[in-house]
């Protein structure tokens, strides 16, 4: 058995690599004043963006009123300016804010004047869901690094949202803090009174602090957005535009200890030899969050429950590429930004590899055996933070247990580790990062060793650099990987869809005796990120042996790609639009050896009108200029692709309406007119009063693909690939209903039935796969291919009650149905849906209760 603990120890080395931190040193204090600005002008501009907090010895009551004596002594912030629809414009209504603090909390009171209080838009929703309401939002950069911040938002009925912002512009919407706010609508408008515990923020230990601060207000019925200080959408970044909040003296050390134990009971369907029965599962666990230092937080999870309450969308994948599914589990979502490195943020770390569905479930042939949907995570730990000198750190370790069914191992015990360190320079205008990710499997079982890699290691460095007053940005990265295992496992890797070393017409050397595989990836991007005209450009190269799918996500190796994009961006209202963007885009791909894979030219425009309706139009041409597809034959010879023409249209309505429809449609024609795909997706968003909202949509797709791969025959240089004409129908329906009783109590309903059928005809063999004309590439063969009729139903109901801040009760009911053995190749919507709902359901009832202890 490989010593798994060695990888866990490796991930902790990141903490020892940190630069020394000098107590009392301000972030960026070694950075000179930007050149080109005179001291007098700089001082004047800074003074206009500075607010002060008043220290109070008596905390105000959090009741939405400003009648506490402490508020009378706090300086007023009132220089708010609009940023949408007009940048740096005069707001219609006055907004005032005051800030207080004591040793444990930051208090903010905001008065949003409105001459028509009865017209204030106040809609209920569950926490972290943005509605077209009025809003007030605080954005606090407690590190004062002008790169990161914490966001706290509320609407007039007290619905809270909180986010962590990083990299000056990105938002981590999964971040949740424990904080208080009270709102009130009165004759002058509405108010919000915030209490932000300092334990929820991160800042260095000093006697005197300055935080970054921005306060934003949305006026729903006018669709006007204002901010203090002036926020300019024409400039890149958000945190770098915050004002300064001075006067923060005597703040306590931002240490915290939070414990959230949980109990979970689950009732699930279990298949037996005589039918189905019910099985009960119970577990206990807990999460701990501890402030190791003022800037570093340790998250621990013991026997964690990482169950998601919303199912992945249904999909039928007929390509050679893995389908990417978004992360939905809270432990991995929080702080995800710190682990994003390089051009593709999931290439080195894709958290859904941890606790993935058992990879060797196909070894179990008994249909009565229940296969777990995911591997059990025994424990996970995460250390994250940002130091005073602008250093960001992220360390993550996790171990999943061995999964076996009646003696057959379907997923081995596995350890994962990730380390990320990034350093900012020039007050965040330049950043340099290093990342390392790895995996070790217990491959003592012979079947496991022959099928799965035993070790994986990947790492890289990345650079971000803004210049010319922040108007231009350079991004570059270099990465390397190595995987190791038995010859059988590495041979499977070479033959897999990421690599296809066995292709008969490439220059790759397939070696069945290899015990390791290594490769590199590199990219450089240069972008103009401000102004009316903007430019994006990229070059990237991935060698054939690059492999990161044990911890990261990589669709394919052996590729070079480049693109160039010219954008025109209008952020000022014109004759008939509020905002508008247009772009011209071209993209090209080759293998690492230079074989052309893809050539594209694309143009699109996106317009939001003054009445809040919108239109998006796009047209593009793919595969022009002799493009080859080295993945279409699933390891067979590369196939020349004929050019295709593509058109897309999307129309949207004003989201503030009670009934807001959306429709999207796409049309694609290729293979010299032999292939055609069209899809239409109508959707309507509904709102009944302030508490009930919903969404009902459908998507229908008709795909006539004249070049659908069905088989490879022969081997080596004699290999031939066979293709058929696929006639495919896909019909899916998505329905959501949210009922919010109050901001802390809500009910969500979600349902998605999905049917996709396909019939094959006209089977042909590629005898001249690189011929210019489509008809010259194939010859007909006598082969029958059975079609398919795949049906899925995913639904759930989630009741969420936050019975006290940070403590939550979930009651979840889930139902799934799958059917694929009826009417292959024949599509009849009503019959297929009737058969789907007649299939045996897999029901799960889950109750989870957690209790938050914190200080």
Automatic annotation (TrEMBL):
Signal peptide: 1-20
Region span, Disordered: 20-66
Listed Low complexity bias regions: 20-53
GO BP annotations listed: carbohydrate catabolic process
Domain Carbohydrate-binding: 62-216
UniProt GO MF annotations: carbohydrate binding; hydrolase activity, hydrolyzing O-glycosyl compounds
Record has Lipoprotein as a keyword: no
Protein name: Carbohydrate binding family 9 domain-containing protein
The organism of origin for this protein: Roseisolibacter agri
